[in-house]
Design goal:
The structure holds 2 protein chains of 2 kinds. Chain A has 13 helices and 24 strands. Chain A is of the alpha/beta class. Chain A is globular and about 70 Å long. Chain A starts with a strand and ends in a 10-residue tail after the last helix. Helix content of chain B is 39%, strand content 2%. Chain B has helices at 10-19, 23-26, 55-68, 83-91, 123-142, 151-162, 173-189, 201-206, and strands at 167-168, 171-172. Classes of the chains: A alpha/beta, B mainly alpha. At the A-B interface, α3, β5, α11 and β20 of A face α6, α7 and α8 of B. The structure holds flavin-adenine dinucleotide and iron/sulfur cluster. Iron/sulfur cluster binds at residues 219, 235-238, 240-241, 244, 246, 248, 250-251, 367-368 of chain A.
């Protein structure tokens, strides 16, 4: 085994949260090394036009994603089933290479609602404990919205997020989201203009008495310089955004917001093609000594470090904790143990909205987030759940992110999948169709978790992560309620026809259908080592010189896209490391 | 099902006259060197010689994809758009070799369909195995291979495959149908540099501007018809 020179901090994975930690901890004067399993890449020469406008390569084959041939996960629906590998991409997509999934995300940039962070206490207080099904296992984050607000804001300013505030210091603002938690400042950039489909949605929603607002978007609406001094350019709604890189320097990614500054710092280094296989512990198993990785030549390398940041994306974080033996693995029968606990996901539904030929939707004019319109009346606890009997909710979105024909061609109900009628429908519908989507939360349950698979291995011979997951009634109720509201808006849009896709009670989780890459939990944060893997600062209860960033920390999922909260939590954790941990290395919260 | 020989229809005529156009005209100035390999037998596509598929497979593929996206006045058929060429070229790409997929065993094909693809075949192996099995079935049922049947018979067989009603040993026909139709639509709508969507015909049919990818001026004009035709990655214009 090769042994490298010790560093102060080693960061495992160099995507969104790895880049944030790199910036923050080098600023504190530490000697920081990031290990990334993939390759280096940057806007130029890797993301340039016209190469990025290739639906087959990026949208369908997934050339930017983690190659499943080398590593995937296995999936089963229930505790007594045998899991089989997720062999082809469908339900969710993993990032790879420098920038991680931050390169090919949409940029839908949200904050959580205040009650999302204290969900268990909030639900118990407002509706009583009995309101939660017996096997629902939701918890508080251990950090409140007010504590997190400056960090959520900072990440928005780093990303140059474009939007309209709905609540500035408690005063409601016309045109923004009236349900959001109070923010201290406006968004750094004004909203991207609505695409036409989103505009039709906004009019209909307003007519029904809702308060539509522009989706907060990390696709910049104008030229902008962020707090690191890095510049973004205006988005041109190219229609090749989610699953694709951005050639316009408009989509916030580690490359467009942090790396130009971080990579030049003398106390920072990046080692690519370095696949970390475990965090090493000393004989007490209460202290990490560094990590082991496999380099490009296939050699095992030991990298000593005083502080280890696990930032490899939610699923990979869980797997690394299990492979390293940090924290007790979760046992779904007893409910004891913490690593792998509370895996959650999201539940989406969609309605295609078909117009006649005189309505030019031009679906190809779209951005991953900018230009779409939202209503938030039915998210979080923005409405009285009492009569409806479920916990959670989601937002409803109108508009489209692009009109890429292999993946995004929407056809009227009853159209056959092939033949002359299919072709005629494709021709007649394509330019005149938009969509309404619901984006809903999923709660945590005793029998939904992650562990190591007993059978299947990755390219290095290490066990794959195994997911045990299926839908619960609470989510079926949630999605039905949300989709009914969405359908009312779609009808109000006065289309020729609509067609809804909604998950029906009794159906199973289907890995073939893309929903979101908003997978959460498994290394959750919380108030006590009995119930969570991390304390409120994302520090391991068991091994205090290990911090774990990313959505693995979410005790259950929210109805919003996660990265706004992920970024905020990472800055919050970094501040605790800088201001408290470095002075007294040890637990930041006494167990 | 009737076994009457298929009569030359207007569609066949259209299809054959279209595919007889030499590749050079189709692709404009980027002249294609003639491909090595055996000449394509059967109907159509004299201009592209497959590298992976053998003669019988090539006949099947052309016949099948041209029923999935048949010729009509709306726009190009799959064969006119070069879909068989696209699929053949994909067979030699990482995709055809299963390079994008996790292909370690054990394989449990009887897993619930909701857990996704669980066969041991890479795409190229699946085509090889399935086409032979389907042609064999067609010969047993109808006395002819798939490509020699009437359009009505072909449509009927494809419909049965789609629903998994044709039971063949080791070849779940619904899974194969799903691969076939997925690759057909990929070839039809992807950038022409991959061999399908010749002259961006499928993009023109629906009104997709291809690789233009810049609508800054258009976001200010919501609801206005977009006037420009497609461009491709290699700079083809319309
Ligand atoms: C198509 C798509 C669209 C999305 N859209 C949105 C959106 O609109 N809004 C939103 O909020 N979120 C969105 N997301 C999710 C968002 O991308 C993630 O939440 C975010 O990138 C998570 O940051 P991270 O640092 O945890 O992981 P990542 O950014 O994925 O970074 C993890 C890095 O770790 C590396 N790595 C993994 N394992 C190892 C190892 N063993 N050794 C070394 N390196 C390793 C990976 O290669 C990767 O570079 C989207 C995701 C996808 C895929
Ligand atoms: S839509 Fe905008 S942000 Fe997204 S990739 Fe295109 S230019 Fe970049």
């Amino acid at each position: 085994m090769i042994r490298m020179k010790p560093v102060d901090v080693v960061i495992v994975g160099f995507g969104w949260t790895g880049a944030i930690m790199g910036a923050e901890l080098t600023e504190a004067g530490l000697n920081v090394l990031a290990l990334e399993r993939g390759n280096y890449r940057d806007t130029s020469p890797d993301f340039i036009y016209p190469r990025n406008a290739d639906e087959l390569a990026f949208g369908i084959r997934g050339d930017l994603f983690q190659p499943l041939a080398r590593e995937t996960i296995t999936v089963r629906h229930g505790l007594n089933d045998t899991a089989v590998p997720y062999r082809q991409y469908g339900s969710f997509l993993f990032g790879n290479n420098v920038g991680g999934a931050g390169v090919h995300w949409n940029g839908q940039h949200y904050r959580p609602s205040p009650e999302d962070l204290e969900l268990e206490s909030h639900i118990a207080q407002r509706y009583g404990r009995k309101f939660m099904p017996e096997d629902m296992q939701i918890q508080d984050y251990g950090v409140t919205y007010d504590e997190l607000e400056p960090f959520l804001e900072h990440f928005e300013y780093v990303c140059g997020t474009s939007g309209k505030a709905g609540n500035l210091n408690g005063s409601l603002q016309e045109g923004g989201n009236p349900f959001e938690g109070p923010r201290k400042r406006e968004y750094p950039n004004p909203p991207v203009r609505s695409n036409y489909g989103a505009g039709l949605f906004a009019d209909a929603a307003r007519a029904l008495g809702y308060k539509p607002f522009p989706q907060p978007s990390a696709n910049a609406s104008q030229v902008y310089t962020n707090p690191y001094g890095v510049r973004l350019g205006p988005c041109n709604l190219c229609g090749y955004c989610e699953r694709f890189s951005c050639y316009m320097y408009s989509k916030a990614s580690p490359q467009t917001t942090i790396l130009p500054v971080l990579l030049r710092r003398p106390n920072f280094s990046l080692r690519t093609q370095s696949h970390v296989t475990r965090v090493n512990l000393d004989s007490t198993r209460k202290r990490a000594t560094g990590v082991t990785y496999i380099d490009a030549q296939g050699q095992e390398v030991e990298q000593p470090a005083d502080l280890v940041i696990v930032a490899a994306f939610q699923m990979h974080n869980v797997r690394l904790m299990l492979l390293s033996g940090i924290g007790a693995p979760y046992d779904p029968v007893t409910g004891k143990g913490v690593i792998g606990k509370n895996y959650a996901y999201q539940m989406m539904s969609s309605i295609s909205v078909f117009y006649d030929r005189d309505v030019a939707i031009n679906p190809f004019i779209g951005a991953g987030s900018g230009g779409n319109v939202i209503i938030d009346e039915f998210n979080s606890d923005h409405f009285d759940h009492g009569p409806h009997g479920f916990v959670g909710g989601g937002y409803i979105l109108g508009g489209q992110t692009g009109g890429r024909p292999i993946q995004q061609l929407l056809l009227p109900p009853g159209t056959p999948a092939w033949g002359e009628k299919w072709k005629r429908a494709a021709k007649e519908s394509y330019l005149h169709t938009t969509g309404v989507q619901t984006h809903g939360s999923v709660m945590a349950y005793r029998d939904r978790y992650l562990d190591l698979d007993p059978t299947y291995k990755d390219a290095f011979g290490l066990p794959l992560l195994r997911m045990t997951f299926d839908w619960h009634d609470n989510e079926y109720k949630m999605t039905k309620f949300l989709t009914d509201r969405a359908q009312e808006i779609a009808n109000q849009m006065k289309p020729r026809q609509t067609s809804a896709t909604v998950r029906q009670p009794g159906s199973h989780y289907d890995v073939r259908q893309y929903q979101t890459t908003h997978t959460t939990g498994g290394v959750i944060q919380g108030a006590s080592p009995e119930t969570s893997a991390l304390n409120r600062y994302q520090q391991s209860w068991d091994v205090p010189n290990v911090f774990v960033t990313g959505a693995s920390a979410f005790p259950q999922n929210i109805g919003y896209n996660p990265t706004g909260l992920i970024g905020g939590l990472t800055y919050w954790s970094a501040k605790a490391i800088r201001e408290t941990y470095l002075k007294h290395p040890g637990p930041l919260v006494q167990a | 099902m009737s076994n009457k020989p298929r009569s030359p229809s207007r569609r066949d005529f259209l299809r054959q006259s279209m595919v007889a156009v030499p590749a050079v005209t189709l692709l404009g100035s980027s002249a294609l060197a003639p491909e090595p390999g055996h000449a394509a037998p059967g109907t159509g596509a004299k201009t592209y010689a497959p590298r992976y598929f053998n003669a019988a497979e090539w006949d099947f593929l052309q016949a099948a994809v041209d029923r999935l996206i048949p010729p009509s006045e709306d726009g190009p058929s799959a064969v006119e758009a070069g879909v068989p060429e696209f699929i053949d070229r994909q067979m030699d790409a990482a995709y055809g070799h299963g390079g994008y997929w996790y292909m370690q065993g054990p394989f449990v094909p009887e897993s619930p369909a909701t857990l996704g693809y669980q066969l041991r075949y890479t795409p190229r192996e699946f085509y090889r195995k399935a086409i032979a099995a389907i042609d064999d079935w067609c010969r047993r049922q109808h006395g002819k291979s798939f490509s020699a049947l009437t359009h009505e018979q072909q449509d009927d067989i494809l419909g049965q495959m789609e629903k998994g009603q044709i039971k063949l040993e080791d070849v779940p026909t619904d899974t194969f149908f799903s691969q076939l139709i997925t690759n057909t639509k990929e070839g039809y709508f992807s950038d022409p540099m991959y061999g399908g969507n010749k002259q961006m015909g499928a993009w023109k049919m629906i009104g997709f501007p291809g690789a233009r990818a810049d609508f800054a001026d258009w976001i200010e004009q919501p609801g206005k018809a977009y006037p420009f035709g497609p461009v491709s990655i290699e700079g083809e214009q319309s």
